[in-house]
């Protein structure tokens, strides 16, 4: 490349990552600076080798999550929720049983074998002092600790957190069964019940014991493992993401089980960054003549497309389950979604036409390939089209109740303009 081109490349690289929120960034600032540094000196080979290493780290990053708490606090239920395993499914951590083991137990995530969630015995049932407890539990092997309680946190919990802090590791407090607390309060005080007041009281009550032992005032996440999209669960996820090193965020984002617009966007953003890095790695500095060849490229992208579907809960098994909930057939149901129609040519609108529109849409935001300093291959745009379509469909599904109860017209109120 000419130096001028290299400078444009470097600043485009930098600018690309500025589009993403901190919690969804999969490259560290140091890595971005390093790539930019090499590119600016026109050492593109070095820049690409940094990118390749980063990609390998992102793909292989193991994630080990420690969950500790006494029996009965809802630890097993919480672990299954994180893993995406139903309480009644085979391999689920047994819930509702009292067992006191002194050992940690590993549980794998249902879709991401890189993610292991460790069930640690409550410190109270082991009689270890916090430092010994941590050594016994191999504290160095975890990315973070989640300390859970279904009532107030105890002196024990606070001491444990203090010891974790001393080891320079991250911990988070989660207070479970919030749904039950609210339900009970509402039943017992139907006239004066106020949700916000109840939550505030629980929060204050929980932090009392902790404040005395820990230096600052720790954040406590009020959650229900039966409803991961509600209360503080989404915020807990975002906070965990920020606390992780950037290269570990991708797998964790994809593994998230809560279905909120925020998590769908996180997954989309994470995948967009990965697709971007892969395009650079593949040397996607190509011109973009459209037309022809698309079928061949699609063959190779089939698997990718199916993966995206499953990341966003749009795989056949998931759709069947939702359709069943609505008493509809899957086909009846698919009419309301965009992704199943990406490949069908209706009204003379082929995938190529859709792709061309989509590229126009992206260019209108970025100022086009010349302004961005990159020329991407078709594959890059196709993957992005898939991603945006899947993410939009997932968000539409979120609003499904409204959608199907009212039997409103085709699909969401405002489809993205590249679809028109
Ligand atoms: P563990 O002994 O700490 O592993 O606790 P379990 O996961 O077995 O949960 C104990 C009981 O609490 C079970 O009956 C669960 O169904 C229930 N439970 C767990 N988490 C929640 C929650 O967030 N909300 C409600 N309402 N019940 C929960």
Automatic annotation (TrEMBL):
Domain of life assignment: Eukaryota
CDD domains: p47_IIGP_like (cd04104)
GO biological process: autophagosome assembly; cellular response to interferon-beta; innate immune response
GO CC terms: endoplasmic reticulum membrane
One Pfam family cited in the UniProt record for this chain: IIGP
Annotated ranges, domain IRG-type G: 61-243
GO MF annotations in UniProt: GTP binding; GTPase activity
PROSITE patterns in UniProt: G_IRG
Alphabetical UniProt keywords: GTP-binding, Hydrolase, Nucleotide-binding
InterPro entries: G_IRG_dom, Immunity-related_GTPase-like, IRG, P-loop_NTPase
Family affiliation: Belongs to the TRAFAC class dynamin-like GTPase superfamily. IRG family.
Name by which UniProt lists this protein: IRG-type G domain-containing protein
């Amino acid at each position: 490349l000419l130096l001028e081109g290299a400078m444009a490349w470097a600043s485009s690289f930098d600018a690309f990552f500025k589009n993403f929120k901190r919690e969804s960034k999969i490259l560290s600032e140091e890595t971005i600076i390093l790539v930019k540094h090499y590119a600016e000196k026109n050492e593109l080979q070095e820049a690409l080798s940094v990118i390749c290493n980063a990609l390998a780290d992102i793909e292989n990053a193991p994630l080990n999550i420690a969950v500790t708490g006494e029996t009965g606090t809802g630890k097993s239920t919480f672990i299954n929720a994180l893993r995406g395993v139903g309480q009644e499914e085979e391999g689920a951590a047994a819930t509702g049983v009292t067992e006191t083991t002194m050992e940690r137990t590993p549980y794998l995530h249902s879709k991401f074998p890189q993610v292991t969630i460790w069930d640690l015995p409550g410190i109270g049932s082991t009689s270890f002092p916090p430092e010994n407890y941590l050594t016994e539990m191999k504290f160095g092997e975890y990315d973070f600790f989640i300390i859970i309680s279904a009532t107030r946190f105890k002196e024990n919990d606070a001491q444990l957190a203090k010891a974790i802090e001393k080891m320079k590791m991250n911990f988070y407090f989660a207070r479970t069964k919030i749904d039950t607390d609210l339900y009970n309060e509402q039943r017992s005080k139907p006239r004066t019940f106020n949700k916000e007041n109840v939550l505030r009281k629980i929060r204050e009550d929980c932090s009392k014991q902790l404040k005395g032992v820990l230096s600052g005032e720790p954040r406590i996440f009020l959650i229900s493992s039966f409803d991961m999209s509600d209360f503080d669960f989404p915020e807990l996820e975002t906070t965990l993401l920020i606390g992780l090193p950037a290269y570990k965020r991708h797998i964790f984002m994809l593994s998230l089980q809560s279905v909120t617009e925020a998590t769908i966007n996180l997954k989309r953003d994470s995948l967009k960054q990965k697709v971007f890095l892969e395009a650079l790695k593949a040397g996607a500095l190509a011109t973009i003549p459209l037309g022809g060849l698309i079928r061949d490229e699609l063959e190779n992208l089939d698997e990718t497309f199916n993966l995206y579907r499953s990341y966003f809960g749009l795989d056949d098994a998931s759709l069947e389950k939702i359709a069943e909930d609505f008493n509809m057939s899957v086909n009846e149901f698919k009419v309301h979604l965009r992704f199943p129609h990406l490949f069908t040519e209706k009204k003379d609108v082929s995938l190529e036409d859709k792709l061309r529109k989509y590229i126009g849409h992206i260019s209108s935001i970025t100022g086009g390939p010349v302004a961005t300093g990159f020329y991407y291959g078709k594959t890059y745009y196709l993957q992005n089209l898939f991603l945006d379509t899947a993410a939009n469909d997932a968000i539409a599904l979120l609003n499904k109740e409204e959608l199907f109860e009212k039997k409103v017209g085709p699909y969401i109120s405002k489809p993205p303009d590249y679809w028109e």
